[in-house]
Design brief:
The complex is a heterodimer of chains A (170) and B (280). Chain A contains five helices and five strands. In chain A, helix 2 packs across helix 5 (139-152). Chain A is globular and about 45 Å long. Chain A has helices spanning 23-30, 86-93, 103-116, 122-128, 139-152; strands at 2-8, 11-17, 49-52, 55-58, 71-73. In chain A, strand 1 and strand 2 (11-17) form a beta hairpin. Helices cover 30% and strands 15% of the residues of chain A. A five-stranded mixed sheet of chain A has the order 2-1-5-3-4, with helices on both faces. Chain A folds into two domains: 2-77, Beta-grasp domain (Ubiquitin-like (UB roll), Roll); 86-153, DNA polymerase, domain 1, CATH 1.10.150.120. By secondary structure, chain B is α+β, with helices and mostly antiparallel strands. Chain B folds into three domains: 8-51; 60-178, Uridine Diphospho-n-acetylenolpyruvylglucosamine Reductase, domain 3; 183-275, CO dehydrogenase flavoprotein, C-terminal domain (Enolase-like, domain 1), CATH 3.30.390.50. A five-stranded antiparallel sheet of chain B has the order 4-5-10-6-7. In chain B, strands 11-12-13-14 form a four-stranded antiparallel sheet, sandwiched between helices. In chain B, strand 8 and strand 9 (161-162) form a beta hairpin. In chain B, helix 3 runs antiparallel to helix 6 (126-133) and helix 8 (232-245) runs antiparallel to helix 9. The N and C termini of chain B lie far apart (52 Å). Classes of the chains: A alpha+beta (170), B alpha+beta (280). At the A-B interface, strand 4 and helix 3 of A face strand 3 and helix 4 of B.
């Protein structure tokens, strides 16, 4: 067993873990943070995306021991004072989900993308989330949501009407 | 991906600690760079990993004789290098294109490492392309405490086969200034816009002539050199000949047929030749 000390969603946790334990397993099974989901188990789908020290990673591709001394942010740590993160709100406003399984990873990756590129074009959004798969193929509204969030996150932006909600992408 | 058999994890925090672990490396205990491939397929033989993330190696070190890239440098870090920071080295502009030629999203590039990409030795590995066209030299730490150097292209023995001996560690890649002063051009073909490269060619033209690296379409890289930009016919003949000899011929896997890879390689070679000033 290895002793780890990790900050997850703002709280510090100390645990003994087996070296083989994946970060996603640690989050879900030890900390009960089931908002981070396991989709493919082969590092392809991105559903388990979290932020590790500020960068998006697939938590199925990181051992829990690798997160020792690091800060982890999951989709459960985005809300502030009862207010959804602007990207969460944009996903809600634009109905950017069908079954919703990919949504936590999509949101975490979208936040990372907007950190790099605060005003992405549609193509840049599509490339920015290319490592996150929506099995429902509901990408149209996901892309809209990311661009909507980008507008609302601009300095000085005020709450605006949600972007129009189109039909599902399936 | 569950790595169910892993029982030990080590994260050395200085060079001496890594050196001490090198003799323990082998088929059942491997280095962990970014882990983007390691975690993507079952590794039933693996009992331990040695994580390189704690070593704190400086990603890029510029000197008069060139640029040294630590093996632990991520592809994102390399791709984010601003070419305007190195005005004397136009070839730095090729870093982004090569980094983004990896089949993988931004979050993969944020953890995937230059050294890992080279050591995995996939034909489509874009860091091998970059190293090939810029004549990169690898510094390798031996398990007995010594070091050796070798051209990076010589580390690629074949698809997913590198020439490192058990216990050896790729420490860094050195890109010589003479190559960095050259202009470069890059071309990629894949079955989907962001798919794995089926042909990835890079060229450079500078004071030491014209160099073309043919990768992804061959099992291992081919590097063609000329005193100046060759004629279209000479270059095409040499690319075709490389395809018959290097690594056993044009590569064949689900990402592209040999005939298509050959055609794209010939097309790209000519496009690169023209982009870098070739006529006739």
């Amino acid at each position: 067993m290895a002793r780890i000390r990790t900050t997850v969603d703002g709280l510090v946790y100390e645990d003994d873990v087996e070296p083989r334990m994946l970060l996603v397993q640690y989050l879900r099974e030890r900390l009960g943070k089931t908002g981070t989901v396991i989709g493919c188990d082969t590092s392809n789908c991105g559903a388990c995306t979290v932020h590790l020290d500020g960068l998006s990673v697939k938590s199925c591709s990181v051992l829990a021991v690798q997160a020792n001394g690091s800060e982890v942010l999951t989709v459960e740590g985005l809300e502030r004072d009862g207010q959804l993160h602007p990207v969460q709100q944009a996903f809600h406003d634009n109905h950017a989900l069908q079954c919703g399984y990919c949504t936590p990873g999509m949101i975490m990756q979208s936040i990372d993308l907007l950190g790099d590129n605060p005003d992405p074009t549609e193509q840049e959004v599509r490339e920015g989330i290319e490592g996150n798969l929506c099995r429902c193929t509901g990408y149209q509204n996901i892309v809209r949501a990311v661009q909507d969030a980008a507008q609302k996150m601009k300095p000085g932006a005020t709450a605006s009407q949600p972007a129009s909600v189109a039909g599902g992408g399936a | 991906m569950d790595l169910l058999t892993v029982e030990t994890f080590a994260r050395p925090t200085d060079d001496d600690a890594l050196r001490a672990l090198q003799p323990t490396l082998g088929a059942d205990r491997t280095l962990l760079g970014g882990g983007t491939w390691l975690f993507s397929v079952p590794q039933p033989h693996l009992a331990g990993v040695v994580d390189l993330a704690g070593l704190g190696w400086e990603p890029l070190v510029a000197a008069g004789d060139g640029l040294t890239v630590a093996a632990t440098t991520t592809l994102a870090a390399l791709g984010d290098v601003d070419p305007s920071s190195y005005p004397a080295w136009p070839a730095v502009a090729s870093f982004r294109g090569c980094a983004e030629a990896l089949v993988g999203s931004r979050k993969v590039r944020q953890v995937a490492t230059v050294g890992g990409n080279v050591c995995l030795a996939l034909p489509a590995a874009p860091m091998i392309t970059l190293a090939a066209v810029l004549d990169a030299t690898a510094t390798i730490w031996l398990p007995d405490g010594r070091s050796r150097t070798a051209p990076v292209v010589d580390l690629v023995a074949g698809p997913q086969r590198n020439a490192l001996a058990p216990g050896e560690v790729l420490r860094s890649l050195h890109l010589p200034a003479v190559a960095l002063r050259a202009r470069t051009a890059l071309r990629k073909a894949s079955l989907s816009p962001l798919g794995r490269s089926a042909a990835l060619l890079a060229g450079r033209r500078g004071e030491d002539g014209f160099v073309l690296a043919v990768t992804a379409s061959l099992p291992r890289p081919a590097v063609l050199r000329y005193d100046d930009v060759p004629t279209a016919g000479a270059l095409a003949a040499d690319v075709a000949a490389a395809g018959e000899t290097v690594g056993g011929g044009w590569y064949d896997d689900p990402h592209g047929s040999p005939a298509w890879r050959r055609a794209m390689s010939l097309l790209f070679a000519e496009e690169i030749r023209r982009e870098l000033g070739g006529t006739g």
